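Note to self: the last two entries modelled the partners one at a time, which told us nothing about the interface. This time every component goes in together.
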Amino acid sequence: MSLALALKTGDVSRLPSRRDEDWRWTDLRGLIRTIPTESPAFLGDVGAGPFDALADGSVVIVNGWVREGDPAPETGVLALRFVSRGDATAHDAEFAVTVAPGQTLTVLESYEGQGAGGYLANIGLDFSVGEGARLERIVLVDDLADAVTVSTADVALAPGARFAQTILTTGARRQRLETRVAHPGAHAELRLDGIYLLDKQRHADLTTQVTHGGVDGTTSQLTKGMVDDQARGVFQGRIIVQPGADQTDARMGHHALIMSDKAEVDAKPELLIFADDVSCAHGNTIGALDEQAIFYARQRGIPELEARAMLTEAFVGEVVERIEHEPARQLARAWVAQHLGRSIL
Amino acid sequence: MLNIQNLHARVEDKAILKGVTLDVPAGEVHAIMGPNGAGKSTLSYVLTGRGGYEVTEGSTSLNGEDLLALDANERQRRARGEDEIAAPAFLKLAREKAASLKIDFEMLKRGLNVGFSGGEKKRMEIFQMAMLSPKFLILDETDSGLDIDALKIVSEGVNALRGPERGMLVITHYQRLLDYIKPDRVHVLAAGRIVASGGPELALQLEAEGYDKYASAAA
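The predicted structure of the combined assembly is written out below.
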C-alpha cells in the first residue's frame, strides 16, 4: 500500500489506511475518495526558493517536472526545490543524490505550495552517502493548507559516512515526511531531527526508521513540535538494531507542546533491539507551556501571546541549534520565528 | 505612589488577604515581613496580576491609576521607567550594568535561566531590574537562596536604584536582607492583615522576638 502505487494505478484501495499499523494516524484512504487527475506541467515563473541565496546550484522540480537548469553540484550546497502548483490534481516526483566517498554536500530542500488549488504530491528521494562522505539535509516544508503530501527519503550510508537531517514543517491537510536509513554501523554517524509547528487543522507526520546493520554505529534523534487549534502532530521513530550490530549507540527524543484542548499529538517511539551490547534510549514528553514562565515574561511587560511565542521558539530552538550549516541555521531560526508570528531583529 | 486600600483576595475558596491597607510614597522603601502563610507572596501576586487570585474587595493604584484593571504586562509597562533606546546605546548600558553587578557578559549570551544556579538567576533579576529601572519595585523574597556575597551584590543593585522618584516594596522573611536594604518603614503582615507598622527598629525586634505575638494578635 502506498500513495505511489495508488497514483500509478488510479486505485484508491491501494492507499495506506488506518488499518496499516504504520499509517494509523495518517490515514489517506479515508481522506481521498478518488485519485485526482495528473497535475499539468507548469511552465510559468515560480519565483525564488527560500534557499537560493545560500546554494551553489539548484534543481527545481515543478509538479513533478524537472526544470532545465544548471547541473546539480556534487559538493558544496545544493538547493532542491519541489514546487507544487496544482488544481485539485496529483503529481509524483523523484530525485536521487549521491555523495562520492570523502566528499561533503549540503542539500537545502524546500517544499513550496503555490497557487490556490490543492494538490496531492508524492515525492521519493534516494540519498547515497559514500565512505567517509558527509551529507547534511535541511528541509523546509511550506505546503498549502489543503494539500496532501507524502515525501519518502531512503538513505544508504557507507562505512564512516555521516548524514545529518533537520526537517521543519508547518504541516498540510495531511502530510507524511518519512526517512528510512540503512545504517551500516562501521563508525557511520546519523542525526535525524525535526520541528513541526501546526495550527488550524493542519497535520504533520514525521516518521523515521533506522536499521543498524553492523557494529559501531551512532544515531541521534531529536524532534520537537507545537500543535495549536485542532492540529495533529504525529511522530513515529523506529530504531532496529540487527543481530551483531553491537556497540550501537542510539538516542531518540521527541517532545511536544500542546497549546489547545483540541490539538493532538500521537507519538510512537520503537526500539527493536536484537543485539546484546548496545546503548539505546528514548525519551518522549508531551505537555503545555509553563505558566510560571509566561507570568515571568508578563511581569517584564511582554504580552501573553508574545511570551508564548518566545517560549515556544526557545523550546524548538534546541533543534535549530543542531543544524550545522550556519546560514541555513539562521534561516531556520527566522523561519521558526516567522511561523510563530514573531519577527527577528 | 503605591496605594493599597482594604485589599481582600482569595485563591479558590480560601481567603488570604483580609483587608490590607498600605501607602508607599515615592522615595520610600517599605518592607513587609511576616510568618509563613501570612499572605506576603499573595500580596505581590495580586499587585502584579498573576492569574488564580481573585480580588473580592478593596483597590490598589499606582500613581492614581487602578492596577486591578490592567493586565499583568500592562501593569509592568506603567511601572517602567525607561524611554525608548537605540540598540547600540542599549548594548552599552547592558555592558555597564552587567559589569557593576559582576555579571560576566558571556552569561548574557546564554538562554535566560537555562542551567542558571539560584544565585545566577537572582543576579539576572537584578540586572533586568537595572535595565528596566522601573518607577516602582516589588521585591518578593529576593534574598532566598543567596549566599552573603550574592546578597551584597543584589542589595547594592537595589540600593543603586533608590531615589526620590522611586518607591519599593521589599517582601522578606528574615531581617537579614534589611541590613543591606535599609527600609524607611517596616510592616508586619499576619493572617492577611497588616498588624503592626514601624521604623527599621521593628525588623530588629521581630528578629529577636519572633512573630508569635502578632500571630495571636491577628487571630
